[in-house]
Amino acid sequence: MALLEIDNVVAGYGGGPDILTGVSVTINEGTSYCIVGPNGAGKSTLLRAIAGFLSPRSGEVRLDGAIMNSARPDQMLAAGVCFVPQDASLFPTMTVRENLVMGGYLINDRSLLRERLHTVFETFPALADRKSQNAGTLSGGEQQMVTLGRALMIEPRVVMIDEPSLGLAPMIADLIFEKIQGFKDLGITVVLVEQNAVKGLKAVEWGFVLDLGSLEFEGPADGILADHRIRELYLGKQLAPRESGS
Amino acid sequence: MQWVQVLVLGLLLGSVYAMMASGLTLLFGVMKVVNLAHAAFLLVASYVTYVLFENLALDPMVSLLVTMPLMFGLGVVLYLLLFPRLEDSPRYVEMTVLLTFGLALIVEGMLTFTFTGIFRSVRPEYASSAVRFGGLFMPTSQLYASVISFALLIGLWLVLRFSKTGTAIRATMQNRSAAQIVGVNVRRVSALAFGIGMALAGAAGSLLSFMFPFFPARHWQWIALLLALIVLGGMGSIKGAVIGALLLAVASSFVTVLAGPTWSPITFYLTLFLILLIRPQGLFGAKVRL
User: How far apart are CA B243 and CA B18, in angstroms?
Assistant: First the structure.
């Protein structure tokens, strides 16, 4: 069943040019997705447009068939669409626990909040050990875990994660991807944006290839990984990180 | 004993400054806007207090019940009317400085038009009396103003610390985009913060009306002083604003005694100058990345 339908969306920032030039994608409940493509393809912009941080200039964002073009971020979140941006957006002088509690800002039921906090600490035992530490003093990987844990607090229907492995050591990145794959068991639909296309696509079921603001190709993730033509045309750079230095 | 006396007078005045400054720094913390019209709106409250006192003989301390809600409402309306359209501007800081500077000019012009430029003051009975504790002498007006200011500061702290809205305000101050991500409606929070800041300016206006004579252009002096206080404390830090205000008020009251009242204002500007040279982020401010 279609959870999110992005229909011919055109979007950009301020008075600037269109970054998305007419993107159409469909996100089904229970499937996991990764959006890949070269730098400047509009991957992050697409997530921002879906999450309500950016209003589409034209086209439609539909959630369960209802048009959500002018919904604010807090309204999208309340509707179950959670966005995790790429710069670990934490509250630096709040503790890990306080950061997680902030993740449940929209929850008014205190016992439910405690229950969710318990679940998050079970999912991320490393955070339980550091719950009284200020989030600003954590390592990059731990901060990324806090942002993911914070997203879990409201048990969203879909969580859209922008560049979860950015700036992390490969081993830590693998651990983060493992946690993200575990979201599926919690009944959460995952949409990833990932520079490291191989890692991203291996972690999901379905891939979208974005270039120059529009959808170039979509299909099963393993199919994209196996398709040499697509790899060469759109993913060449990310598949050879050592050569490009990114 | 004389030094204790000077210290006490400094602290009394400092608590009023602290309340004025915390409103201004709250606004900066939430919206990254330096509201140059803060003191101009404070004077609006002074004049409202003046009119209520002259016509209805309303005690200026009671008129807080009028000026605070009035300024809160004005703050929310002004915010919603003027600021959201600047939000996406790449020149946000410059735009808001110009906007609030313009607001200050407009308010000053309207006050001058309505009340002329002559000095006014509100003179309830306690404005010219004093109380003694042991050997300490305290002007009644300053004592009252100080008690009310402290009560309001404690109220502000309670709201920020324990209410859901307060949590949202603190979260927005720490990281606006993170607050948005966890579902805080940052526009609503900004409007409320603007309202709260303005309500504190309103309270300060009512209290200052019986402590110092005022005229429409007086707000430039107040805003300059307030900016020194919040820069010393660290922009956006309420704790810093309170400590900065108490420190500077005490310092200036010592300067008054040692060098004469003419030199008292220089305490603020000299401190502003020195803090910008030595520690631009202030006592409790986070380092600002530009």
Answer: 8
